[in-house]
Amino acid sequence: MSFDTGLLALDLLGVFFFAVSGSLLAARKRFDVVGSVLLACLVSLGGGVVRDVILGVHLPSAFGQPIYLVPPILAAALVYIFFNSVQRVTSLLTLFDAGGLALFCISGTLKAISLGANPVAAILLGVTTAVGGGVLRDITANEVPALFDAREIYALPAFCGAALTALVWHLGWFNLVTGLTIAALVFAFRVTAWRRHWYVPLAVHGWHRQLD
Amino acid sequence: MSFDTGLLALDLLGVFFFAVSGSLLAARKRFDVVGSVLLACLVSLGGGVVRDVILGVHLPSAFGQPIYLVPPILAAALVYIFFNSVQRVTSLLTLFDAGGLALFCISGTLKAISLGANPVAAILLGVTTAVGGGVLRDITANEVPALFDAREIYALPAFCGAALTALVWHLGWFNLVTGLTIAALVFAFRVTAWRRHWYVPLAVHGWHRQLD
Amino acid sequence: MSFDTGLLALDLLGVFFFAVSGSLLAARKRFDVVGSVLLACLVSLGGGVVRDVILGVHLPSAFGQPIYLVPPILAAALVYIFFNSVQRVTSLLTLFDAGGLALFCISGTLKAISLGANPVAAILLGVTTAVGGGVLRDITANEVPALFDAREIYALPAFCGAALTALVWHLGWFNLVTGLTIAALVFAFRVTAWRRHWYVPLAVHGWHRQLD
Questions:
Q1: Which residue windows are transmembrane per the record (chains A, B, C) (predicted)?
Q2: Using CB atoms, which residue from A59, A64, A79 is nearest to B203?
């Protein structure tokens, strides 16, 4: 499998995970099926479009390669057909979102590197790709972005994943095994932090979080 | 009238319609006149700027061609002078918004085609142009975007208009008459759906909408 | 000091001011330190990224030049260490935001001129740079953007500063002294309007503001 094919597969899988999170949020918000497809597209393709626009890639993959439309349509269809219990929405949404985050911080960093960005820019673009779609999703649906929610650890796993990807790449060790290992670590970090209620200190020294 | 002049006229008329919808929302939200001009600019020029940035057009028309500033300033002035009944805001806003939607899904698709985008990308960019400004307007004014409101059919008319435009163009039948016919169909679809309370099924099979 | 060095210094100082406003808002919203760094980045770098993307600069300075990350990290650290009184947040936030506004309407206009934009486009891009980050900050934090708040005069000082910058530049009079004078005027206009409760008329003729 060539590098480009591998990167495409990684990216499309991340698109699918984020798309499911978008359609699940659409279900919770009681949007209609068109809104479900659109929110799936926004969250799964938005981060990559922002990355490609910043890198000066015209057209961004989501517009130039029609295959990128398959995962969001599939995700909306799966949620339409199989979803029937509102209780599980929050957990499922968080798990699929974590899967997208884990894959996008890698594919975003690699795409930036392959287009000649310096390591710092590549890491920043990896993080932007990973968190961008979710922020667009939450803003559009009028939720507080998980990115800024002090009860969540969200950006930190993406940053670690992007930094690890850039490091492993520059050491020449990047391959399918190391890539999937990084993805698994990011996923585990995000999900464990969520399950165990890990916190980061508040923005001001000495301030303590109020009981929720 | 050349193709470029016709496209510019179509685009400027769409800009004017969306600009009026922006200034009407500014009135309903009790913004000041500066906020009215700014919201008119954001909604009428935002979708096109996003389209041009994605297509790699620098500068986007809204920045490069000062004539694009005339419709939003005119719209804010007309709303300032003639508007005095808050009752009619919602209806008027929806009608002007539908006019902008009908023209932008055509001009957005044509501009993408004229810059060499493939048909699928051109349709997606037509839809993005048509719905982009309205989404920016609603997010900025802290409203639920009409795009995601399950009581509205909003994206579907834009999608049909963009797809029809791409089809008619590729058949070589695009001209002033067919263009205005598509615009009229999109406008009629959107407004009839709104007046008759047409709905699309919800995002999950078997879920029914609650009474509003 | 060369023009480019001067422009960079001006820009970085504006980045720092906006970054402090972002971290102060993060403190008021009780975000954690990671959210504080991210909001500082978004507000201080967002306007410039939007400007560079519109101008077709790849990579935008915020991604291509790592030095742009220093001010937001510094700002989040300063707020973390020294901030301990919630009473002063609103005033401080407004003052730092006004400082960023004053510097960015100048640096944004100059950068657009230096890349060959016409004067109208340069003024529009100066205003976009100046108000863009603050709008992103307020939307993300679910606040009404100060830009649209009828109790604030926000866009007008930025517009005057950008127009003055373009005028003084085209007269060949732009230098450190005239630049700092324009910045001081914009800052004074914004802060005086805020302290003295200056208002702009509402979006509709004859409508009066309700008592707050």
A1: 6-26, 33-54, 66-83, 120-140, 176-193
A2: A79
